[in-house]
C-alpha cells in the first residue's frame, strides 16, 4: 500500500475537499556499494578534519555556509528549523490558469491526489470544472516543511499535482538563449513535416525501458555464475549533412521501405526476469 505524503484539504472558496497525496513517480537506478576488492567487505567512510588531524564524530558537526575562501558562517539545525514553513493542512487555490499557459519546464515533482469519502463530490466538481475549461489551479501548500507553489490539473479520473520551480530556480543558459536564427529553404520544412508524420504515433510509455539497467541486471546475473561476455554494439556512423534536402528525401524513402516497428515486450521480459530470479 502506498504511503501518504500529505493529508489535508483543498480550499476552493467555501468548499474544502479532504484529500491525500501520493508520489506519482520516483527515479530508479541500479545502486552499488563501495567494496574492498581484496576481501570483498563493504568499506566504511570516516569524517576527517585536516586542521585537527583526527577523525571526528557526527555530533561535532555543524552546517557552514561558505563566505570567502575557507571562511564559513556556522548555522545550527535548531536555527534552520526555526525558519521552516509551518505545517499546514490546507492547500489554498490562488487562481485558475489555462493549462497551455504553464510551461512544463516549471514542473518539478508529480503527486496523485485521492479524495476522502466526505469530499468526493467536491473533488469531482473541481475536476469536471477544470476539464470543461481546460484549466489548472495554482495553489500553495507546505510540503516537507517548505512552502511550495503547485499546479493542480485533471488527469484521468482524478487530480494530479505538480510542484513548480520558482522562477529563480530555472537556469539561464546563454548558449541556449543566444542561438542564431537560421533560414531554411522553402521546401525543407514541408519535407521535414512529411518525415515527422510518418513517425507520428500515440504515446505509449510501456514501449520504452531503461536499456542500461537491463544490461546491468544481465551483468550481475552472469557474475553470479560464469564470467560475462560483453555484447558488441555496432557504432552508428553519422555522415555530415551536406545537402539538407537530399538527407530529408533519403530519410523519407528509408522510412517508407522500413517495416513497422513492434513495441518491445516489456511485460513479458519483466515476468521472465522475475521468474528467473525466483528460481
What does this structure look like?
Among the domains are: 6-25 and 84-169, Ku70, Chain: A, Domain 2; 183-194 and 244-258. 28% of the residues lie in helices and 27% in strands. It has 7 helices and 11 strands. A 7-stranded mixed barrel has the order 1-2-8-11-10-9-7. A two-stranded antiparallel ribbon has the order 3-4. The longest helix is centred in the middle third of the chain and has 14 residues, at 120-133.
**Mean model confidence by pLDDT:** 83
Gross geometry: extended
The SSE order reads EEEEEEHEEHEEEHHHHH
Please give the order of strands in the largest beta sheet. Answer: 1-2-8-11-10-9-7
CATH class division of the domain at 6-25 and 84-169 = Mainly Beta
Radius of gyration: 27 Å
- Total helices: the number is 7
Structural class: alpha+beta
Brief account:
The chain has helices spanning 77-83, 120-133, 174-177, 188-199, 211-223, 244-257, 266-278; strands at 6-12, 15-23, 48-49, 54-55, 63-68, 71-75, 90-98, 107-115, 135-143, 146-155, 158-164. It is an alpha+beta fold and 279 residues long.
Which structural traits does this protein have?
279 residues, alpha+beta, Ku70, Chain: A, Domain 2, seven-stranded mixed β-barrel, two-stranded antiparallel sheet, 11 strands, 27% strand, extended, disordered C terminus
Can you lay out the helices and strands and say which pair or pack?
Layout: E1 6-12, E2 15-23, E3 48-49, E4 54-55, E5 63-68, E6 71-75, H1 77-83, E7 90-98, E8 107-115, H2 120-133, E9 135-143, E10 146-155, E11 158-164, H3 174-177, H4 188-199, H5 211-223, H6 244-257, H7 266-278
Parallel strand pairs: 1-7
Antiparallel strand pairs: 1-2, 2-8, 3-4, 5-6, 7-9, 8-11, 9-10, 10-11
Helix pairs in contact: 4-6
Amino acid at each position: 500500500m502506498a504511503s501518504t505524503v500529505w493529508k489535508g484539504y483543498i480550499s476552493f472558496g467555501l468548499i474544502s475537499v479532504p484529500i491525500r497525496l501520493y508520489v506519482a513517480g520516483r527515479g530508479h537506478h541500479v545502486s552499488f556499494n563501495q567494496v574492498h576488492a581484496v576481501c570483498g567487505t563493504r568499506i566504511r567512510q570516516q569524517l576527517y578534519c585536516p586542521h585537527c588531524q583526527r577523525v571526528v564524530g557526527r555530533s561535532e558537526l555543524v552546517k557552514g555556509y561558505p563566505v570567502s575562501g575557507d571562511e564559513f558562517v556556522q548555522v545550527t539545525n535548531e536555527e534552520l528549523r526555526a525558519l521552516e514553513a509551518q505545517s499546514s493542512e490546507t492547500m489554498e487555490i490562488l487562481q485558475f490558469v489555462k493549462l497551455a499557459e504553464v510551461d512544463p519546464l516549471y514542473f518539478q515533482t508529480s503527486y496523485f491526489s485521492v479524495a476522502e469519502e466526505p469530499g468526493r463530490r467536491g473533488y469531482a466538481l473541481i475536476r469536471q470544472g477544470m476539464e470543461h475549461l481546460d484549466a489548472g489551479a495554482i495553489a500553495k501548500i507546505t510540503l516537507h516543511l517548505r512552502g511550495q507553489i503547485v499546479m493542480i490539473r485533471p488527469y484521468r479520473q482524478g487530480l494530479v499535482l505538480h510542484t513548480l520551480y520558482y522562477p529563480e530556480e530555472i537556469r539561464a543558459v546563454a548558449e541556449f538563449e543566444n542561438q542564431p536564427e537560421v533560414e531554411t529553404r522553402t521546401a525543407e520544412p514541408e519535407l521535414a513535416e512529411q518525415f515527422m508524420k510518418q513517425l507520428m504515433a500515440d504515446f505509449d510509455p510501456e514501449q520504452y525501458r531503461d536499456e542500461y539497467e537491463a544490461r546491468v541486471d544481465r551483468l550481475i546475473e552472469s557474475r553470479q555464475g560464469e564470467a560475462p561476455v560483453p555484447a558488441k554494439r555496432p557504432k552508428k556512423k553519422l555522415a555530415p549533412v551536406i545537402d539538407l534536402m537530399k538527407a530529408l528525401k533519403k530519410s523519407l524513402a528509408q522510412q517508407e521501405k522500413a517495416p513497422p516497428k513492434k513495441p518491445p515486450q516489456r511485460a513479458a521480459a519483466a515476468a521472465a526476469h522475475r521468474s528467473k530470479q525466483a528460481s
